[in-house]
Specification:
GO terms for molecular function: acyltransferase activity, transferring groups other than amino-acyl groups. The chain has 150 residues and is of the alpha+beta class. The protein has four helices and seven strands, in the order βαααβββαβββ. The protein has a single domain (2-112), classed as Gcn5-related N-acetyltransferase (GNAT) (Aminopeptidase, 3-Layer(aba) Sandwich).
Length: 150
């Protein structure tokens, strides 16, 4: 298995077709953003990255590393988001592997801390994340904010 970055990869249509197969509404939203990179940059900040963990030509997991997320706070960045593992690959800690890769990228970009926003309780704690607080996201919904010092 290997990790690639969407925006610097070839065959973007192939990757978008695979994202479209994900049974998760946030993946559908991500696909809309990928089809309109201006909107992607507007919502998630410029220079965002989308990482895929691949099994051959199949996406196992994906995650974003961006300047913004659904929480608008200029003092909190970067954000990890859209973390997803396809059902056939679940139970093998592939999400953890991809999170670690994204964290390493954040470190190489001189970011000593990363944030994520989620509704999940108990998932990210096992990866070393600490609950910070609950805030309203840009859709005015409660979202839990976690952080991790790298």
């Amino acid at each position: 298995m290997k990790v690639i970055e969407y925006f610097t990869s070839e065959n973007k249509e192939h990757w978008k077709e695979q994202i479209a197969l994900a049974d998760w509404s946030a993946a559908k939203f991500l696909l809309k953003l990928l089809n309109n990179t201006q909107k992607f940059d507007e919502l998630l900040g410029g220079d965002g990255k989308l990482f895929f963990l691949l099994d051959g030509e199949n996406i196992v997991s994906f995650v974003t590393l961006t300047r913004q997320d659904c929480i608008r706070d200029e003092n909190m960045f970067p954000w990890l988001g859209f973390l997803y593992t396809y059902p056939a690959y679940r139970g093998n800690r592939y999400s953890e592997k991809l999170l670690k890769y994204a964290e390493e990228q954040a470190i190489s970009d001189n970011h000593p801390i990363v944030y994520l926003a989620t509704d999940h309780i108990g998932l990210y704690e096992k990866y070393g994340y600490t609950y910070l607080e609950t805030r309203k996201d840009y859709l005015d919904e409660d979202t839990r904010i976690y952080y991790k010092k790298l």
